[in-house]
Amino acid sequence: MDQIVVFPIIITPVANERKYPYLVEIPALDGLTQGRDIADAIEMARDYIGTFSLTDELPPSDPTLPPVKADSLATLVTVNISAYRRRYDKKVVKKTITIPNYLNELGKEHQINFSELMTQALKEKFNI
Asked: Three-state SS for 53?
């Protein structure tokens, strides 16, 4: 079963900022990011939470909206952490494969990096 988390975020317009006019706070993670518009700000918050989960333990989900100033917006974002990790976790894992001996010998003769070759083949297979 996938791990889905919910966190409140606060989106605040930033005066005189043209490229990223929305500041996004993720209070539970003491995180900040920015967005080009409201939808992008929400997406950046999701990405921040997902990226955070790759290296640090997330606190428990908290669906409580914090108080905000008049010009800010508080909302909840959900992130499927399991799906995010499947897509972006670049941690290397050891896999054991079975190949015919003649291919193993040819690979050794030609100094083939089997891990690199398998990675390339899988990326090609999945159109990554």
From this structure: helix
